[in-house]
Each structure stands twice: as C-alpha cells, then as structure tokens.
Amino acid sequence: MTCFSQPLRWGLTALVLGLTACSETPESAGFAGLGEQVRGETFAQPARGDRLRFPEDFGPHPRHRIEWWYLTANLTTEQGEPLGLQWTQFRQALEARDPGGPEPEPGTWPLDAAWMAHAAVSFQGQHWFSEKLARGGIGQAGATAEPFEVWLDDWHMRVEDDGRWRLQVSGEGWSYDLRVTIEGEPVAHGGDGFSPKSASGEGSMYFSLVDLAIEGEVTLGGQTFEVSGQGWFDREWSSQFLKAGQQGWDWFALHLESGDKLMMFRLREAGGDFLSGTWVTPEREVIPLGADTMTLEVVEQRDTADGNVPVQWHIHIPGRQADFDVSAPQGQYWNDGLFPYWESPVSVTGSHQGEGYMELTGY
Amino acid sequence: MTVFSALLSHYRRHPLQLLALALMIVLATMLWTGVSHLTDRARASLAQSERAIAGQQELVREDGQSVSVQDFAYLRRQGLCVMPWLEVERPAPEGRVIGVDPFASACFGNEAPGQARVDALNGEPFLDIAEAAEMVRQGSDGQLSLLVPVDVEANAVPAAFRLKDFSMGPATGELGESFLLNLDALGVLVLLITALLVRSVYQLGLVQRRESFALLRRFGVPAARVQVLLLIEMVALTSVCVIPGIWLGRLLAEILGGGFGQVLESLFDAPLYAVAGDGFVLPALVMVSVVLLACFADKRLLLRLPWLSGRQSVLWFGVPVLGLGLAMVAWPFILGWLYVGIALVFVAVGLLTPRVLSHVAQWGVEGAGAITLWQRRELAVLFRRLALPVVALQFAVAMVLAVQALVTTFEDAFEQWLAQRLEAEFYVEVPAQSAVEDGVRYLESLSGLGDWHLVQRGTTRVVPEMAGDDAATSVEVDLFSISPIGPLVTGWTLLDATPDAWEKLAAGQGVMVNEQLARRQEYQPGDPIGFALGEQTLALPVVGVYADYGRPEGEILVAGQILPDTFNTRFQSLSLNPGTLAMAEIEQGLATVWNTDQLTVRDNSSIRSLASEVFDQTFLITRAITVLTLVLAGTSLLVMGWVFFTTRAWYYRLLFVWGLSRREVAGQLRWLAMFLTGAVAVAALPLGVWLTWTLVSRINPLAFGWSLPMAVYPGFWLEMLVLCLAIGLAIAVLMRRQLGAGVAAPAVANVSGGGER
User: How far apart are CA A59 and CA A143, in angstroms?
Assistant: First the structure.
C-alpha cells in the first residue's frame, strides 16, 4: 500500500505555497499529515461498493487527491546475493478534475497536481535512495493507462512491445534497468478493491500485482549486476486516506515459498491499532483478513540514525496456519527524502519461509 | 608566599590596574574579532551577491524559436537538470518578478540561480511560475528561459538545443576580488593596531609594577625568573580574557551587521550573512599569540637592537626606513615587495610620530610664560609617554580614513562600471542568422527614437611591434565596436586621451584601448597600435584610454565603420533608449524585420538597480568595520589617556599651588587632552591618504592590471577630527572629576611612572 501520498500533500504543497512542512503538521494529522481532513467537497472519496476497472485503473485518477504506483522487488545477483529494490511514484492533486474534462493548458504552468518519485536499492547492508519532484500538467511527469506508462523526468515504467514492463531509474552513482513480466490477475484488496483504513470508513481503492518475474541490470558505484527475482506492484488511490489521530503504519508484502502471498498492514493510533490484510493462496484465491483473524507483534527494535525501528516482527494467522517471524537484514534502510521512512527487504522464517518488503512510517 | 603570589600581590593591592589590563585585552580581542568577523561576512556577502547575479547557462533552440513549456518537459525527460525562469516586467511600482518552479530547481541543490528556493516564493522577486504565467496572460511582458547548471557541457545537450550564457546582471569579475584583497590588507592592519593597544597597556603596567620588581630582585629572585612568571601571568590572563573578547566582538559585529541582514534577505531571500565554521580556537590562538608577541617580542628582538632607543637613534633609524618604505611602495616590482614597503612605512611612522609630535609641541617655546612653558612641556611628555596608544589611534584613524575612501571609491567605480556597460535603457540581442543591417535600417527609419548604437564584439590580435607583423609576439584581445559613436559612450570618463578623441574615434582615425591593455602594452595616447581585422591589418593611433573595471582582458574600442565584412563578429546587439516610442513597439518591429519571435531584450535600468542594491549592502558592512575599529581604538585611547593623566594628577594639583583656579586648571587639562587627540587625528591624515592611494593606485594595478580613481573626502576628515577632539574632551572631563576626588600621594605618581619632567 505504501501510503505515501500525504507526504506530497504536506511536502510538495508546502513547497509550492511556501509554507513550512512537517514542523507545522498538526499532530492529529498523523505521519506527514496523512490524516489531514479534506477541505471542501471537490475530491471524490472511495467508499465500500466502489469497483475496480481495468485497464483504466492503471492510469491516474484526477478526481482523487492522492495516489501512487509502487513496485518492490526481491532479486538475486548472478552470484546469488540478495538485492532489494523499490520504485514509487506519487501524485498529489491540489485541485480535483473530471477524467473526461479539459486538461489545463501547459503554457500556464498549472499547479493542479504535484508528483514525486522515489527509488531505492538495498544491497549488502547498504541503501541507495533518490527522490524526484515535478509539477503536473506540463508533461514533465504523468501516467497513462493505455499504453501503460508512468514517468517523472527520465525515470519511467512503461509497457514495451513485447508486453513486458520496463522500469528505468538512475540516481547519483547508481541506476537500474529492469524488465517486468506480469503473471496472474490483479488482486483486489478489501474484497472488491476498497481497502478500509479505519473503523470509521476512511480508506482507499487498492489492488496489487503479486506475481511479477523481474530481470535486468542494477549498477552500483560503477559495477553492474545482472539480477533476477520476483516483485510486487501496488496501485492505490484515495482522497481521505487516514483518519485523524493515526500516526503511521507498518506494512508488509510477502512472497512465501509455499506459493502463498500476504499483504498486511497496521495503522497505529492511540485508541487501538487498525489491522488488515489479504492472503492470496497458490491457486490465487484471495482471502481478506480482518483484525480478529491475525496478530502482529514487534519482536526486536533496532537503534538507527533516525530513531528506534522495529526490525523483527511476529505474524500469527491461525486460520492460515501461519506463525512466522519477519526480519529486516542488517543495515539502515531509511528513505531520506522530504519525509523519511523505512523501506527494507525482509526474510520470513517460521511456519513459512519466504521474502518480501516492509515499510514503516511515523517512527 | 611564593614568588608568583608575591608578583600577583601587586594586583591585590591595585585591582584597578589588573582590571585595566584585562579590559584592554578584552577590547583588543573584541576589535580584532569583530573586524575579522565583519570582514568574513563582507566576503561571504560579496561572494553570495556575485553568485546571485553571476552568469548562468541556458538552453535555447537551434531553430531560433522561443523555448516553451513543452521544451522544458522534453529536456527533463531526457534527464537534463533544467529549470524554468520566467521574467515578468510590470510597470512601477510592482517592477520585475521572476517565476520559478521549485520542483524543477530541486536538482540544482544549493546552486539554484538567484537562490530561487522553495521558501523564497514571496514575490520579492521570486514567485511560483504559475503566478508569473498568469501575469503574462494578463498582458505583462514575460520571457521564459530554461536554465541549466553551469557544469552542463555542450555534448550533453539534445541536438535541437544549444547552450548559451545567461546572466541576470553583469558579473563583477575582478572588481570583487580586488575589494576582498584590500579587505584582507586592512585585516592585517587591524591586527597591528590590536597589538599596539595591548603593548601600550602592558608597558604601562610594567612601569606601575617597577617597585614590586625591584623588591623581588632585592630578595634574590633572578630577573629571568620574573620574566617567566610574567609570561605565565600574561598567558593565563589572555586566555581568560580572549573568550569574552571573542564573544563580545562577534556580538558587536552581529549588532552592527544585523540591521543590514533583513535588507539583504529581502533582495534574494538569501541569508547573505551566514558564515559557517565560527570556532573559538583559531581566534583565541591568534589573539594569545599577538598578545605574547606584543608584550614579549622586545625581550628577544629589540634587546639586540639597543641603538633603537633614544631620540636620535629613533630618528636615525625611522627616517631612512620611512624613505625606503615610501620608495618601495612608489616603485613596486611585485605585490610582496609592496606589502613589505607598507610594513616599513608603518614601522617608521609608529616610531617617528611620538617623537615628531613631542618635538613640535615644544617648538618655539623659548621666551614663553611659565604656564605656556609648562603646558607645552607637559604635552611633549604626554606624546612620548603615551606613544603606543597615540600611534594605535593614529593607525586606527588612518585606517578608517582609508577604508572610507576605499569604499566610497569602490562605490563610485562600481556605479561607473555599471553605467559603462548599461548605458542605454534597453539592450536587444541580434538573433543568430539574422541580418543586423535590417535591424539598423529599421531603427534609422523610426522617428522619436532616442540614442542608440550597434555593438559588435569579437577578438583581434594586437601586434606590439609595428615594424614587422610578427605573429609570435602578437597578443589576443577583445574587439569592441560601436556605431554610431554617440552620446551613449561619449560620456565615459577617459583616463587619458588626445584632444578630440571621440571625434577621431568616430571618424575611424584612431582607436581607444582599455586600461588593462594600455598598462600591459604600455600604450599612451598618440602611440600607434597595429591589429588584425579579418584579413587585413590596421595601424591606427591610440586616441584614448578608458577605465574598464573588473575585467582581465585587454580590449580595443573601434568605430563600427572600420570593421570589414570579413571580420568574425561573435556577438551583436543594439543598445537603445526608446525615446518617445514604446519599447514594446520597437521590439515588435525588430522581431518582424528579423522574422523571429524570440528576441532577447534586457531592461538595463532594472539590472542596474538590482546590482546596485545588492552591492550597496556589501559596502554597508564594510563601513561597519570602520565604525567598530574607530569606536574601540577611541575607547582604548580614552582608557589609556585617563589612566595616564591620573598618574600625573599630583603634578596637575601643583597648578593650584601656582595659584590657578579650579576652572583654570580644568581648562589646562582640556587643552592638553584635546590637543593630544587632535594632533593624533592630524598625524593620521597623511598616513590615511597615503594608505588610500596605496590601496587604489598600487595594490590594484599590481594585482589586477587596473587602478581605481583616487579621491579624498575632506568632510570625513573633519568628522574624524571632531571625534578625536571629543575623546580628548572626555578625558579632560574625567580628569576634572579625578582632581576633585581628593589628594593623590606623590608616591603613587612616581610608582606609576609619571615622575618624568
């Protein structure tokens, strides 16, 4: 889910309007202001009963305020060393617009939306991260559903003639160029695509591609590695993502060796955390998980440059006979952008073995 | 009781003397720290000012069309760091604003042009580009540029685009460097003044402790041991005093500089004051070293030069050194030679001034009445006994005079320099591949147009040896051509010229050269100069030398009519005043005849006012340095003068015995004190004028090849004199209170060294 669009809200909007950013974020607005209440009624808010539509939902949703495209990959080099990789592109609308309505004239340098992209590589205990920013409506950044393409400057994810996606990113001293083969159908979270984020109804539209075969090249400090492995792709959009008082989240996307897939998140709040998830069987049966069907506990914290971070977790889902630990490798995996957050590959040990990604915010 | 505690017991008996010494070290540290802090800030301010208006790079289309938002998006998608820059001109009072995209400038990091950062979008002058675009939509003139970082190279640019210099204003080049070099020289001078102040108070302290030393010696303590203990005492005292001194100096600098900060920030929203890395260790080490050198260097150095003491010896040593120093400065070979010369002059002046003043004080005293005789002899004693603080104030006043003249001269030069480059109101670049003649014909056809001329620039080779056109000895210089030669240039101040220089230039019967070329090749008006123009070589007389501040290159100015068709013109522009016409109309006309919609037009007045505002702030900081120096040097003299006059209070009381009334005694003291400080101001005047001349006419030409005009400011001299007299008056007022405070024992006066007659 990589719930990150509100950093845009507080970061980029602040950038543009010359306001201060997180220091003035009300505490009740949660991490990076994600719980800020939507002012006005112009943005559409997802609700239970909304349905996913393909391929349109791979493209932008200009009536919604926040959305993102997100990919993580657990890869190995030819030498068999694990390498984790992330790419995320966010759109933060400042004004709602009907999808079929006239687009703003680029010559006016419109400011109806701001875009941000993050990319990171984790390898041998080191973490490389880069961030890019752009205003919407002028062609510098954008997304289209058909043909599928998401871009910001020279970073892009787009469909190639052979039907595979190509993801090209370059940071300072590092880059990657990957080809992504999509297997399987999109997985709708929350049953039909509406993923609640609180008991009071805030939530988002959310689906994932959980079977991605990835290969390509990663260059780090002048050394190029041939890599291959599996990945996870998320699409999520909303206008009111968190409810007031929610401070941040812990999110996991796991590939289990049994062939099962698990997406699970916890939103932290004073009155009791909100827990939710989706279990995907090897036959690709999608099973929504409610808070009463699972437990998530911190096993170990790590003292890092930006504070204590829970790096080992215990997940127990009795209904799926799942009882395992999820651990981040040694190292520090902060994405030090406008709003720092933790993004690391993880390994799974216990009743199940596997790998995946973990995102922690608000620490 | 140990020897050390016995030594220190003097201060227990005379705590005010310890306080005076500590106060002087604190004041001296404060002076040097404050000045060096302000100098650093001036340096940082100048550097940032230059960065703010320094040249950048932009990308333009090869086909001559204006760049657009689509070009911006295309270039960004090619991976280039490009930021849009939309300049919008609005009628006064709104003026110019610049639309930038903070998202796009992020990739420039801290080098974003004009410090166009996120938190600067308040319309002064930066705002979000969408707002600027809206102003353009509503009718304001706007021009979009696409800026790229200066390190982007041509081979990284997509084929349909090319790199081009982009400037928000003229780069200051060496003008700024020269300014900084002079500031450094003044920093050294301040350190010297600091050392003099410390030494003066230390010596006064030694005299006051003479009895203590004699007592210790009688108890068998060797003089060397006393010396070591004194050294330890000074190290300890200095170590304690420099900390508050540094802190106070910075505080004072903050107060003096703080007022300007907000003004500066409003220009580019840039913290033009930030000076990182302010530590205590370095200034503390410098100050401890200076104090120790000032107090103890003579033990090792001057003792080996016994002939330096005594009136005749000082004259025999001082006068030749002064002559040597003046000669070295007058005919310097290299910069280092020049600095040695300056140092010699200061040493000689420091040695001679008290003696000369003392001598002058007693001049013509024969046959005078008793009171006058006493007055003049007392003044002579004061000059000798207060030699160090007198010299310190003399140096300080001289430095203040020099800095004031330097800053004012720089300001004038800067204004002149701007005026030379931005004479016309507007400046229109001739687009590449456009026929300049079409534009010229169009301008000639306009009625109501103000003054204008065509500027063409290129390079040429000067052949120093006229006889043989030997390429091996030729030098490449810039060629600057103007046609017609009109009022926009004839107002330039020429450094040297033949009669009717402009007329000869206009007729193609001569050329002018800039000061750099004239100095380098030793051209005088009337000298012939040979240079290549296209395929031909011309030989014409030099008819004038013009000041061309801040550029290293030599340049020849010629009339446009002598340029042959084969001359490779690198750059062409039209400088014009629109007169009764609207500039928009002229722009439209030129765009039409050149068949382009991309016309680069610069409003020179706005650039000039912007640049002036930025640099004014730098000069204000420099002025703060002079104020600080003067205040602290003046305070030091006040303290020293008061302390010294106090030691002689017993003698002044004898005036009552002679029958003078209290009022008459006070008058005598007032005369003495004011004459003393007034004489210091007068003695500082020639040194200040000489120092100014050295800075602008010697250091600059040697360092950069061009000089600044020398100017003197008698009004400011008068201000300095009044200030010095005020210090004297303050001493007299304090002394008057002292005399009324009870009878001082003669023993105190003797111990304090006031017994000399």
Answer: 6
pLDDT in tens, A290-338: 999 999 999 999 998 888 999 999 999 999 999 999 999 999 999 998 8
For residue A363, which amino acid is it? Answer: Y
Q: Residue A119 has what pLDDT?
A: 97
Q: Are strands B126-128 and B96-100 parallel, antiparallel or unpaired?
A: parallel
Is residue A275 left, alpha or beta, with left meaning phi > 0 and alpha meaning psi from -120 to 50? beta
Per-window interface: B 31-90 vs A, CB < 8 A: 68-70, 72-74, 76-79, 84, 86
Q: Is B150 helix (H, G, I), strand (E, B) or coil?
A: coil
Tokens of B404: 């004031």
Which among A190-194, B388-392, B457-461, B602-606 has the top mean pLDDT? A190-194
Is the separation of the CB atoms in B214 and B208 below 8 Å? no
Percent of chain A whose pLDDT exceeds 90: 67
d(CA A279, CA A315): 13
C-alpha separations of A131 from A66, A190, B78 in Å? 18, 30, 17
Spatial contact of B17 and B205, defined as CB atoms under 8 Å apart: yes
The beta-carbon neighbor of B103 closest among A106, A110, A114 is A114
**pLDDT exceeds 50 at position A14:** no
Q: What DSSP character marks residue B560?
A: G
Tokens 């004031």 correspond to B404
What mean pLDDT, rounded, does chain B reach?
A: 76
The alpha-helical segments, DSSP class H, found in chain A are 5-7, 13-17
Chain A and chain B share a number of CB contacts under 8 A equal to: 72
pLDDT score of B165 more than 90: no
Q: How far apart are CA A92 and CA B109, in angstroms?
A: 23
CA-nearest of B31, B15, B40 to B400 is B31
CA A322 to chain centre: 24
Whether A133 and B133 lie within 8 Å, measured CB to CB: no
CB B203 within 8 A of CB B388: yes
Specify the pairing of strand A203-220 against strand A223-238. Answer: antiparallel
- Set of chain B residues whose Cβ sits within 8 Å of the Cβ of A139: 69-70, 73-74, 77
Peptide bond into B125 cis (omega under 30): yes
Looking at residue B749, its pLDDT comes to 35
Question: Between A17, A18, A154, which is nearest B77 by CB?
Answer: A154
Tokens 């640049």 correspond to B611
Taking residues B23-46, what's their average pLDDT? 73
Token look-up 């290969």 returns A215
Q: Is the model's pLDDT at A194 over the cut of 90?
A: yes
Residue A342 in tokens: 């933790």
Give CB contacts under 8 A, 24+ apart, made by B152-155: B152/B57, B152/B80, B152/B81
Name the least confident of A152-161, A260-269, B392-401: B392-401
CA distance A57 to A185: 13
**Cα B703 to the chain's mean position, in Å?**
15
Strands lying side by side in the sheet with B55-61: B126-128, B96-100, B83-89, B141-148, B55-61, B161-167
DSSP β-bridge partners for residue A195: A204
Tokens of A320: 């799926």
> Any idea what DSSP says for residue A186?
P
- Residue for token digits 């540029």? B145
Q: How far apart are CA B51 and CA B115, in angstroms?
A: 9
Secondary structure class of B740 (helix, strand, coil): coil
* Amino acid residing at A12: L
Sign of the alpha-carbon torsion through B474, B478, B479, B484: negative
Q: Report the pLDDT value the prediction gives residue A220, as an integer from 0 to 100.
A: 96
| Percent of chain A clearing pLDDT 70 (strictly above) | 88
Q: How far apart are CA B657 and CA B675, in angstroms?
A: 24
Sequence letter at residue A326? V
In chain A, what residues touch B137 (CB-CB under 8 Å)? Answer: 108
